[in-house]
Each structure stands twice: as structure tokens, then as C-alpha cells.
């Protein structure tokens, strides 16, 4: 992947425009437009627009659990492997959470030669599906047939009807999570982003991983769970997710806190047309091609080759980026491309 990104940057000749190892400490709007960036070390630079691409999976969301734990307590952000930063080999490890990361870590830690015991603690259930399912197209695949040609609202409505049936068929072939000690899965497929994992059910079935309820209290080297079970534990790995935070940008500038931000087509601030967020979305397919498509909208806008619609349309087509129901990722790309084509036509008319 690193080689690919390097080749990409070289191909588009952007290496010389990157200032590596330069942290933005503060971004503030300038009076006449644009932003003043204060860099680590004190230098200030001004730019016409600000593209936020600083990631949303780095600020750990720690679980709030009463009590104190005597063993090692790390967040999945810091987990490298079963020996780093904590040597989990031969130890009793509790993984908190039931998202993609928690399930991956539990499977990895339960491999031979890793932890002696793996507990997986979940407060609420998840739909868990295989990573690849031959009978259905992956959500990264372009939609075909009717779905490709219908107008957007109709297409989305149809997708919302078809998707649960298709996924329902896949889920019906999987074990019932409750039969393996996990909490019941959500009532609908749109409530939570699904977990993709091929090995978790097998490991639970063979006892290499044991499901536990949510953590109630930490008691030295023991952990009490919501159902009253108590286990001795050496290491806790909190795979409890991340907060989307932008420490260099005040909430006043955004008009809300970062997780609540609504963006035009998931990209542009509806009232600050020179402020963009790239790569922050809920998707179950690769984010990188989506990020590139997002920039394919931003770059022509900054170059004056794409003209925005009316403010009313901008506001109507803005939505919270972290609170949208999952859909086919190609729909999103298609919508961005359609908007780009419309904006280019608007720019030519002006
Ligand atoms: C365990 C795990 C597995 C994942 N697997 C996948 C996957 O298979 N497919 C997928 O699409 N996504 C995956 N993701 C999500 C993945 O993180 C994103 O897709 C991808 O990294 C987003 O790239 P990005 O450039 O937007 O953000 P990041 O990769 O987070 O990069 C942000 C950059 O901004 C820099 N930065 C931050 N703050 C500042 C500042 N103040 N000043 C200057 N620079 C700053 C950081 O140093 C960093 O270089 C995974 C995430 C995790 C945690």
C-alpha cells in the first residue's frame, strides 16, 4: 500500500508540495477569506482553502468503567501485535467491543501461541457477515441494471428494500450470535455498520474465544460483567472506537463539534465554501477511492471550473457525515460525479 501511495504521489507530482513532519497547531479564518495556519514551531502560512484530511481514527474513545484495573490496559490504537506494546502471550486477555477491530483482535489473539485465554466483551449485538460473499456483489462494485439508471431517491429507496433481503439470506446461513453467547444482533441492517469477519464464529464455537457481556466493574485483576460473571484478566484491550476530533479547528468555526458536522455531498461545509473534509465517512468498502472522488469535486471548485448551486440547494444536500445509513459505496461516487458534471455546466454558463 505504501508503495502504491508513493507511486500515486509521484505520478501526480505532489511530493514537492508536501511539508512532511509539519503539524498544524491552529487554523483560523482570515478576514478576506482563506485560512491562517499556525504550524508547530511558530511559523504562520495563509491559504485560500482548507482541506481537512487528518483522519478520524486516531483519538481513542476509552470505555467509561468504574473501578481500577491492576493489569495492562491499552486501546486498540496502540495495539501492534500480540507482543507489542504488551506481551499478551500466555496471558488472559479481555477485548472490549464488538466492532471490526475488536473481532479482528480477538481472532488474532486467540491464535496458537498467543493469549492463553481470550474474552470478548460486548454491550450490544452486531450483524457479523463474511468478508467476501460470492453470491452478492461487494458494495464497492458498481450497481447494475435498474439500480444504475434510476433517479437517486428511487434508487436509494429500492436499495433500502433489496439490501436487507440479500444480506438476510447471507445472515440466515451464519450461526445465531446468541447461540455463541453474543448479544442479539440489531433489529435492522441499517442500525449499525456491519462487522465483516470470517473466523470469529468458528473461534467462539471451538472455545478459543469466550463471549462475555458488557464490563460492569474493574476489581484489581478481576473483571465483573453485566450478567454477574467474574473473570481474572491480565490484559485489557479496549477496541471501543475513536472520536472524530479536530484539535486545530475551533467548534465556532465549524458551527458544531466535529462529529456533528454536516457537509454538502459529504465534502464541503455548507456555509464556509472554502472548508472541506476528505475521507471521513461510514463505509464498508475502501475509503481511498471515495476520498479521491471527493477531491475530484474540491479541486475544480478551487480552480473555478466547478460552480456551486444555490445556497438553498447546498443546505438541502448537506448531511451529517458520520450518521448516514450504510449504502452502496458506488452510489456515493456516482452522486459525486453527477454533481461535478452539473457544477461544471453551471461554471460554463456563468
Ligand atoms: C485497524 C484499521 C484497519 C483499517 N482498514 C481499512 C481498510 O481495509 N480499508 C479502508 O478503506 N480503510 C481502512 N481503515 C480506515 C483507514 O484509517 C482510512 O481509510 C485511511 O487511513 C484514511 O486515510 P486518511 O488519509 O484520510 O487519514 P489517515 O490515514 O488517518 O491520515 C491522516 C494524516 O493526517 C496527519 N495529521 C493529523 N493531524 C494533523 C495536523 N494537526 N497537522 C498535520 N498533519 C496532521 C496524520 O499525521 C496522518 O498522516 C482502517 C483503519 C483501522 C484503524
What layout of secondary structure does this protein have?
Layout: H1 2-11, E1 24-29, E2 35-39, E3 44-47, E4 50-52, E5 59-60, E6 67-69, E7 72-75, E8 92-96, H2 100-109, E9 117-121, E10 128-129, H3 146-149, H4 152-172, E11 195-196, H5 200-205, E12 209-212, E13 215-220, E14 222-225, E15 230-232, E16 235-238, E17 242-243, H6 251-254, E18 262-264, E19 275-277, H7 287-302, H8 311-316, E20 318-320, H9 329-349
Parallel strand pairs: 4-19, 6-13, 7-16, 8-9, 8-16, 9-12, 10-11
Antiparallel strand pairs: 1-2, 2-3, 5-17, 13-14, 14-15, 18-20
Helix pairs in contact: 7-9
Bound molecules: flavin-adenine dinucleotide.
Flavin-adenine dinucleotide (FAD) binds next to helix 7.
Describe, in plain words, how this protein is organized in 3D.
- With 350 residues, this protein is an alpha/beta fold.
- It has two domains: 42-57 and 249-349, no CATH class; 62-130 and 174-240, FAD/NAD(P)-binding domain (3-Layer(bba) Sandwich), CATH 3.50.50.60.
- The protein has helices at 2-11, 100-109, 146-149, 152-172, 200-205, 251-254, 287-302, 311-316, 329-349; strands spanning 24-29, 35-39, 44-47, 50-52, 59-60, 67-69, 72-75, 92-96, 117-121, 128-129, 195-196, 209-212, 215-220, 222-225, 230-232, 235-238, 242-243, 262-264, 275-277, 318-320.
- A five-stranded parallel β-sheet has the order 7-16-8-9-12. The chain has a four-stranded mixed β-sheet with strand order 6-13-14-15, with no helix packed on it. A three-stranded antiparallel β-sheet has the order 1-2-3, with no helix packed on it.
- α7 packs parallel to α9 (329-349).
- The model has no long low-confidence stretch (mean pLDDT 92).
- The protein binds flavin-adenine dinucleotide.
- Residues 23-24, 53-55, 57-58, 101, 248, 279, 286-288, 291 line the site of flavin-adenine dinucleotide (FAD).
Amino acid at each position: 500500500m505504501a508503495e502504491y501511495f508513493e507511486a500515486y504521489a509521484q505520478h501526480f507530482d505532489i511530493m514537492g508540495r508536501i511539508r512532511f513532519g509539519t503539524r498544524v497547531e491552529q487554523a483560523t479564518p482570515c478576514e478576506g477569506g482563506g485560512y491562517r495556519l499556525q504550524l508547530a514551531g511558530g511559523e504562520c502560512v495563509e491559504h485560500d482553502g482548507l482541506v481537512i484530511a487528518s483522519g478520524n481514527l486516531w483519538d481513542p474513545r476509552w470505555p467509561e468503567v468504574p473501578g481500577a484495573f491492576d493489569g495492562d490496559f491499552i486501546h486498540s490504537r496502540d495495539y501492534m501485535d500480540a507482543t507489542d506494546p504488551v506481551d499478551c502471550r500466555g496471558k488472559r486477555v479481555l477485548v472490549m467491543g464488538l466492532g471490526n477491530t475488536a473481532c479482528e483482535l480477538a481472532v488474532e489473539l486467540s491464535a496458537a501461541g498467543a493469549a492463553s485465554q481470550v474474552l470478548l466483551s460486548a454491550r450490544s449485538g452486531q450483524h457479523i457477515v463474511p468478508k467476501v460473499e460470492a453470491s452478492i456483489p461487494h458494495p464497492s462494485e458498481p450497481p447494475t441494471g435498474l439500480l444504475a439508471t434510476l433517479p437517486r431517491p428511487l434508487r436509494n429507496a429500492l436499495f433500502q428494500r433489496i439490501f436487507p433481503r440479500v444480506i438476510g439470506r447471507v445472515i440466515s446461513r451464519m450461526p445465531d450470535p446468541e447461540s455463541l453467547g453474543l448479544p442479539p444482533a440489531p433489529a435492522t441492517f441499517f442500525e449499525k455498520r456491519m462487522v465483516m469477519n470470517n473466523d470469529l464464529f468458528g473461534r467462539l464455537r471451538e472455545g478459543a474465544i469466550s463471549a462475555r457481556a458488557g464490563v460492569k466493574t474493574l476489581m484489581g485483576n478481576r473483571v465483573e460483567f453485566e450478567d454477574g460473571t467474574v473473570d481474572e484478566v491480565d490484559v485489557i484491550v479496549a477496541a471501543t472506537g475513536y472520536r472524530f476530533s479536530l484539535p486545530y479547528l475551533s467548534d465556532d468555526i465549524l458551527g458544531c463539534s466535529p462529529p456533528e458536522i454536516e457537509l454538502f455531498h459529504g465534502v464541503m461545509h455548507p456555509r464556509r465554501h472554502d472548508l472541506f473534509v476528505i475521507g471521513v465517512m461510514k463505509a464498508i468498502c475502501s475509503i481511498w477511492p471515495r476520498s479521491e472522488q471527493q477531491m475530484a469535486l474540491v479541486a475544480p471548485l478551487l480552480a473555478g471550473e466547478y460552480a456551486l448551486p444555490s445556497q438553498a440547494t447546498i443546505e438541502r444536500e448537506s448531511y451529517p457525515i458520520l450518521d448516514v445509513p450504510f449504502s452502496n459505496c458506488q452510489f456515493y461516487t456516482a452522486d459525486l460525479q453527477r454533481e461535478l458534471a452539473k457544477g461544471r455546466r453551471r461554471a460554463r454558463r456563468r
